[in-house]
Amino acid sequence: QVQLVESGGGLVQPGGSLKLSCATSGRLFSIIPMGWYRQTRGKERELVATITPGGTTNYVDSVKGRFTISRDNAKNTMYLQMNSLKPEDTAVYYCNGNPPWDQYWGQGTQVTVSS
Predict the structure, then answer these.
(1) Fewer C-beta within 10 Å: the chain N or C terminus?
(2) What is the per-residue pLDDT across 28-74, written as a single tens digit (0 to 9) for each?
């Protein structure tokens, strides 16, 4: 059964850092493009960063230079290193395929950036 489990969120001050992890159920997600998404209350879910199986990355303009997406296919795990966090980064962060598969959305992990 396919599962995606996000972790690593929390409360951090502006300018701080967090590293999110996305544990996958197996090799399925090691062979497809993946992405990190975020959703703020009242707004649509936003694709933040993407990574191909080979490691090619792309980022939404608002996080370029601050966030780094990576994946360890051997561990079936994806990461999002978030530096220089801003209050506008506050959201629930999710991982999924790119494009996402609706049936595989997990619970996400809450990131709150506040002083």
Answers:
(1) N
(2) 888 899 999 999 989 999 999 999 999 999 999 999 999 999 999 88
